[in-house]
Amino acid sequence: MSETTFDYIIIGGGTAGALLCNRLSADRNVRVLLLEAGRKDDYHWIHIPVGYLHCIGNPRTDWLYQTEPDAGLNGRSLRYPRGKTLGGCSSINGMIYMRGQARDYNQWAQLTGDDAWTWDNVLPAFKRHESHWRLDEGQPHDASFAALHGSKGEWRVEKQRLRWDILDAFAQAAQQAGIPATPDFNTGSNEGVGYFEVNQKDGLRWNTAKAFLRPKCYGRPNFEMWTSAQAMRLITEKQADGSVRCTGVNVWTGDGMEHVTATEEVIVCAGAINSPQLLQLSGIGPADLLHAKGIPVVHDLPGVGANLQDHLQIRSVYKVSDATTLNTLAATRWGKLRIGWEYLLHRTGPMSMAPSQLGAFTRSRPELEHPNLQYHVQPLSLDAFGEPLHGFPAFTASVCNLNPTSRGTVHIRSPNFEDAPSIAPNYLSTAEDQRVAAESLRVTRRIVSQSALARYQPQEFKPGVQYQTDEELIRLAGDIATTIFHPVGTTKMGRNTDPMAVLDSHLRVRGIQALRVVDAGAMPTITSGNTNSPTLMLAEKAAQWIRADHKARHGLNAAVPARTQPVPQPDAEAASLTL
Questions:
Q1: Out of 47, 376, 486, 550, which one is annotated catalytic?
Q2: Catalytic annotation present for 486
């Protein structure tokens, strides 16, 4: 902690924060401080793909949040993992590379009144940091693929290193049910069925710390990083003209409080749960809530902590016959040893698995214009995440509503920064979400009934064929559904006329100068798929705006180059963490 004054303070070294550190510190004339509440990503289970089983629910890497009891889930509370380490959720997530649908971003443009968010205008930001395996030297591809994907970025996208006969049969059954095969979920229309592509490199998880921090930031004299350093409160000051400016952060280092000052901006990248919590602790949020918790109101922003959206997955489990699944492979000590040796020797096999291997996007009813369901299909089954695998061969077809209409909240419980916030997703609280839940279970049954799976004699273990009516299926969804870990929207961007918009279209906090929020909380509506890659895109856009604003303030050339730095090459420090 050599200094306490910086140009930029970035709170959170996760998905968005890591990219922003890389982009902003590329300018040697600015000083950047990264504050990360967790520890470094030197825990070996972070880097082994199947290690998410050891990272979720582990205080070493997870905030260990729980939701409030939820009426839509028949009173159940859910575990709500959030990454607490360098790389954030990219260190513990499912590693699936998914952009969503073009309509998601066109809707953002409408909601914010800013065409910067249209699909055509976000696509270059996706490509800027992408390194797609199909564009590697020697890999065949056509010009249309290259127009949609990047090859020179830091964010590695690879194909999975295993396949399963039972998943191939599910894919064939999906096609028989009317879902086309697709080689690429990331063209702007993700309709279809196929194996997911993943953020891995040579069989190892590729998190944002390895992609954006370690190759370049660690060696820059203008970059400083504090780990195990939790932001307690944003510091704001009233200016002579009556405006309010964010000037710094109070930070708990474990040994005491430090005050750090930002001369340019404070950028909050703490995620859709921790960012609204920090704003509320700092007096920025719904005035009624702040008064009730004894926090002086700096700025009344009722949207802080509102608009929580998440993907709720409904897990259908099918017993099968004469099929190899992870349940059977990992049933014996010898089987587990074989899996371990395969990974040690070749970086392949079940230890290289993402949590879900096969994906599908389709409609819950034919008249819908766009796919509104996503499947994560796995060659395994268990009663609940963290529980042992079942003792019989089975596969799981998890389905989620891509565009939920239910909205929840994130609210502080007290003025104490160490107290976990109250997370209330309000799942299945609208008639539309309940309808889609019932429809999605029927779509699953239709796929599984196709002839391609007949040889495996699938039997519905969960939820059970005895449940048939809408009322029964909705009740059942409440009993078995769980989060797929995609919270967004709690500090949404929007138009000036939207009283619930926390941010403007450039992610600046309304009513507070020199303060932005850059993470999944900024999304006004959830994307139609996994949310990690869209969060990186948000950060890429924000980096361009922040650099342009800096140049404009200081009378410099405001043009922002297409790339801020050469593509980093692996160095000795990066190699030391590849297991």
A1: 486
A2: yes
